[in-house]
Structures are given as structure tokens and as C-alpha cells.
């Protein structure tokens, strides 16, 4: 299956090359199972060991590290978590043993000029709580382990022992639920690394906002409350938030971001396709499927649906405005209908990557990290940007 997956990816890359889009050919990065973490209970939902993929740095990047947390939504109760435990989002036994690295993970200087020779690690997501859970008891009926918070610490401790203790530069990053992990754990990550290390965070598509569905229900707020309760997440959420709000509300970046002291950069679509499909218009809010075509392809949205989606953008920009006056916080907010843009070469840096202020995501993040310039740009409303890759 791994060989077949690699063949499919290579074929797609060749097809893109045939279309005139320049893309690099990357080799697969093997999986590492963190067996030593099991003794401390830092395990996936099904009790299997956590895992990551590690492409080692070279030349001038051997003391620089990118630690990226994979995404994949959340599970909010025992039933959903039990189903998840039988997938690669809940068990390392189900994971692909090889991943293709590209985008911010590429080891090709042409396509990733600032970070190509860093140590690049993709941490697999198998807990369903954005690495916040920690429940001691294991239900004998389900054998579910809610231990995402322990996995977060175990992985970092393992990498410190493998050289990250000598890090000169380090980035905590993640996509989607992993992007939320980055936001919730950014300051904690800095405390776990040597004080001399230059630490910053990059959240990709992790800025989930608290909005009601088209039917007026607080669906995502209720869902996050259930996630936090099921996984025992409160102890691993930022105390700056839990000291004033209920833990479920502290899963929303708008209630956390302003208090993050470590420099952090937000890459996000103002029309985040996952949020529109699952927060604004979840299936439960659209029982007749009138939004199905629109959710699949924004071009197929009716004028009334586009008005609703423009309203989502307004809500998103209001939610992220809490970072506006902080010089250590950067932002690349495009007007694309997309979700996760740093891990794919086409959206990170290629001949036709999305641009904001005539700048690619790779250039914006690199300039911000190395302090060549600040970058806090918000795109004009859809459909103004012809460089977008709309999903």
C-alpha cells in the first residue's frame, strides 16, 4: 500500500510537471514509533505508541528544527473516539509507514529556501484532542486512552535527546487540528526548549472561530465543550484563558491568541473551507443538502450563499483582530477557499502559489521568522485574488 501511495503521488507530480508547474520530487520519510513513551502512558487512543517522521537536517541546518503536528479534527465522545481508534487518526498501527515531505518540509533549497536543510519532523495525530488530553483511567470496555497531552511532552523529550537540546532555531507548527495544537502549546513549547534557542510558532489553518451555524445553533461551541470534557483537556489549556473562561471556550484561538508571548505566525484562509463545511454549515444544519454543491466548490454557491460566506469572513477577521497590535505576531490571511497551505508545494512555494501583497506564504513566513521584515497582511474579499487555489 505504501508503494502504491508513493506511485500515485509521483504520477501526480509528473502530471503537474507536464502542465508546466514546477514541482520537486521528494523521497519518502519513514515512520518512527516512540515505544519508550508507552511506559509513561503517552499513547494513542488505542494504546499504541505515538509516532513521527523525521528527516534530519544537514549542512547549516543541523541545529535548526521544525516540529510539525498533523491535523485531522477531533473526537468528542467515547463512541466517536472508539471509531477513530480504528483509523490512522487513533492508532499508529493504522498509519502509513512512509510520508512524502514537501512544502515547508521540502529538502530542496529551490522550493523551500529558508528551511530546506533544517531537521523536519511530522508528528502523527492519534489522540483526537489537539494533543491536550490526559485522563488517567482507561475504560476497560473500550480500552480508550485519552493521553494527547502526554504525547506532546514525550515527543519533545525524545527529540531533545536526539539533538534538539542543541537547537539554535526551532519552530513549532501544525495544520488544522495541528495548527490549533500550535496555538494552544506555543508558549509551553518554548519552556521545554533551552533558553538560548530562538523559538517561534507557525499555525496553519488552526484559527477555528466560534460562530453559529446557518440554522443558528452553537454547534462548534458545544462540540468543543464535549472534546475538552471527554479528554480531560482543561489542565493542558493555557491558564491565561482557563482562569477567566470555561475550558471549552479556551479551545478557540480568539480567546487565547492575544496572550501568547512567544512569537507566532498565522497562515489561514479567511474563507477556510473546512470551517465553512463543518462549523458554519455542518450536515446537521443543512438536512436537505441545499449547500452541498456550494460546500464542494465555491464557484457553485448562489448569491445568497455567497453573502453568508462573506459574513463568515467578517466574523473571522473580527476573531483574529485580537493579534493586530502585536509586532511579534504575523499573519498571511488570503481570500482563498482552502484549508492547510504550508505542507503542499503548490500553495507553499511554486510557480503559481497564492500571493498576498505579491508574496508567497514561504516568503512571508521566512521573512517574519528571520526578522527581515514584519508581515501582517489580510487579502481583499473573494473573488478578488486570481492566484488562489480554491478547494
TrEMBL record:
Q: Name one GO cellular component term.
A: plant-type cell wall
Q: Does the keyword Cell wall biogenesis/degradation apply?
A: yes
One annotated GO molecular function: pectin acetylesterase activity
A Pfam family of this chain? PAE
Q: Where is the signal peptide?
A: 1-20
Note whether Oxidoreductase occurs among the keywords: no
List where this protein forms a coiled coil. none
Q: Which InterPro entries does its entry note?
A: AB_hydrolase_fold (IPR029058), PAE/NOTUM (IPR004963)
Q: GO biological process: what's one of them?
A: cell wall organization
Q: Which domain of life is it from?
A: Eukaryota
Question: Which EC number(s) does UniProt give?
Answer: 3.1.1.-
Subcellular locations according to the entry: Secreted, Cell wall
Mainly resides where?
secreted
Give the record's keywords alphabetically: Cell wall, Cell wall biogenesis/degradation, Hydrolase, Secreted, Signal
The free-text function statement in the UniProt record for this protein reads: Hydrolyzes acetyl esters in homogalacturonan regions of pectin. In type I primary cell wall, galacturonic acid residues of pectin can be acetylated at the O-2 and O-3 positions. Decreasing the degree of acetylation of pectin gels in vitro alters their physical properties.
**Which PANTHER family does the entry link to?**
NOTUM-RELATED, PECTIN ACETYLESTERASE 11
Q: Which family does it belong to?
A: Belongs to the pectinacetylesterase family.
The name this protein carries in UniProt is Pectin acetylesterase
Native organism: Trifolium subterraneum
Taxonomic lineage from the root = Eukaryota, Viridiplantae, Streptophyta, Embryophyta, Tracheophyta
Amino acid at each position: 500500500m505504501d508503494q502504491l501511495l508513493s506511485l500515485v503521488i509521483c504520477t501526480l507530480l509528473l502530471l503537474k510537471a507536464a502542465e508546466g508547474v514546477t514541482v520537486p520530487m521528494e523521497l519518502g520519510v519513514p515512520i518512527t514509533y516512540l515505544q519508550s513513551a508507552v511506559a509513561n502512558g503517552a499513547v494513542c487512543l488505542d494504546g499504541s505508541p505515538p509516532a513521527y517522521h523525521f528527516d534530519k537536517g544537514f549542512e547549516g541546518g543541523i541545529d535548526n528544527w521544525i516540529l510539525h503536528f498533523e491535523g485531522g479534527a477531533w473526537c468528542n465522545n467515547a463512541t466517536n473516539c472508539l471509531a477513530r481508534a480504528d483509523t490512522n487518526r487513533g492508532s499508529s498501527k493504522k498509519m502509513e509507514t512512509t510520508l512524502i515531505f514537501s512544502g515547508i518540509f521540502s529538502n530542496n533549497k529551490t522550493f523551500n529556501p529558508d528551511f530546506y536543510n533544517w531537521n523536519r519532523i511530522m508528528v502523527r495525530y492519534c489522540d483526537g484532542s489537539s494533543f491536550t488530553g490526559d485522563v488517567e483511567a482507561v475504560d476497560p470496555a473500550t480500552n480508550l486512552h485519552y493521553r494527547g497531552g502526554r504525547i506532546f511532552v514525550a515527543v519533545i523529550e525524545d527529540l531533545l535527546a536526539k539533538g534538539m537540546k542543541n537547537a539554535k532555531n526551532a519552530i513549532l507548527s501544525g495544520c488544522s487540528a495541528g495548527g490549533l495544537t500550535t496555538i494552544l502549546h506555543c508558549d509551553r513549547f518554548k519552556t521545554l526548549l533551552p533558553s538560548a534557542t530562538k523559538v517561534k510558532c507557525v499555525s496553519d489553518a488552526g484559527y477555528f472561530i466560534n460562530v453559529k451555524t446557518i440554522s443558528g445553533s452553537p454547534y462548534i461551541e458545544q462540540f468543543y465543550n464535549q472534546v475538552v470534557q471527554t479528554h480531560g483537556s482543561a489542565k493542558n489549556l493555557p491558564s491565561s484563558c482557563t482562569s477567566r473562561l470555561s475550558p471549552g471556550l479556551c479551545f478557540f484561538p480568539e480567546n487565547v491568541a492575544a496572550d501568547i508571548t512567544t512569537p507566532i505566525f498565522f497562515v489561514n484562509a479567511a474563507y477556510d473551507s473546512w470551517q465553512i463545511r463543518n462549523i458554519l454549515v455542518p450536515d446537521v444544519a443543512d438536512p436537505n443538502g441545499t449547500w452541498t454543491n456550494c460546500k464542494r466548490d465555491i464557484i457553485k454557491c448562489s448569491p445568497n450563499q455567497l453573502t453568508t460566506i462573506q459574513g463568515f469572513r467578517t466574523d473571522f477577521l473580527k476573531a483574529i483582530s485580537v493579534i493586530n497590535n502585536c509586532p511579534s505576531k504575523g499573519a498571511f490571511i488570503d481570500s482563498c477557499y482552502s484549508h492547510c497551505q504550508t505542507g503542499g508545494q503548490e500553495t507553499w512555494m511554486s510557480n503559481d502559489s497564492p500571493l498576498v501583497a505579491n508574496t508567497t506564504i514561504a516568503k512571508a513566513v521566512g521573512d517574519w521568522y528571520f526578522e527581515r521584515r514584519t508581515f501582517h497582511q489580510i487579502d481583499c474579499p473573494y473573488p478578488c485574488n486570481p492566484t488562489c487555489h480554491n478547494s
